[in-house]
Amino acid sequence: MAQILRILGADLDRTETWIRYDKAMCLDCVSSCCTLPVEARLSDLIRMGVVDEFEKGEPLKDIAKRLKKDGVVERLNAKTGLFTLVRLSNNDCVYLHPKTRLCTIYDQRPETCRNHPRVGPRPNYCAYKPQKLR
Fold first, then answer.
1. Whether 63 and 48 share a structural domain
2. Do 43 and 32 have their domain in common?
3. Known PANTHER family for this protein (predicted)?
4. pTM for this one?
5. Are residues 30 and 94 in the same domain?
6. pLDDT tens per residue, the chain (134 residues)?
7. Could you list the residue range(s) of the whole structural domain that residue 69 is in?
8. One domain, residues 69 and 54
9. Which phi and psi (to 5°) does residue 26 adopt?
């Protein structure tokens, strides 16, 4: 008799377990996508309200230094100009509400988040984990 393997939730580190994305999945997910590293551009940081418009002329490394101190940015990739947002010790995005599992800056969120899962480690697939597994 063949054993049937049932995936109750995707393994974030194994993209082959990710499920083809459907927007209805977001309704009962634990926001596993919000535990992936989030890259942000300077324009995202301005929209998020953590960088002022007048700072656009400053060197990115200076902005990154301040944002690291403020606990917003983990690092800057100087080659690409991409900042990586801080994640908490459980890998949650710093802007993910711990109880509701909703984004606290949804209307100002970075383009990476706005375009997920169309872009990312496995485009058009999601690391879906239903809330009932929590």
1. yes
2. no
3. PUTATIVE-RELATED (PTHR35866), YKGJ FAMILY CYSTEINE CLUSTER PROTEIN (PTHR35866:SF1)
4. 0.83
5. yes
6. 444 444 467 888 899 999 899 988 888 888 988 999 999 999 999 999 999 999 999 999 999 999 999 999 999 999 999 999 999 999 999 999 999 999 999 999 999 999 999 988 899 999 888 887 54
7. 39-86
8. yes
9. -65, -25
**Residue given tokens 């634990």 in the structure block:** 30
pLDDT, position 9: 77
Alpha-carbon Rg of the chain, whole angstroms?
Answer: 17
Tokens at 103, concatenated: 């984004």
DSSP letter for each residue of the chain = -PPPP--SS--TT-GGG-EE--GGGGGGB--GGGGS--EE-HHHHHHHTSS-GGGGGS-HHHHHHHHHHTTSEEEEETTTTEEEE-B-TTS-BTTB-TTT--BTTGGG--HHHHTTTTSSSSTTEE---BGGG-
76 and 94 within one domain? no
Looking at the domain assignment, is residue 69 inside a domain? yes
The residue whose two tokens read 């599992």 is: 101
Q: Is residue 3 part of a domain?
A: no
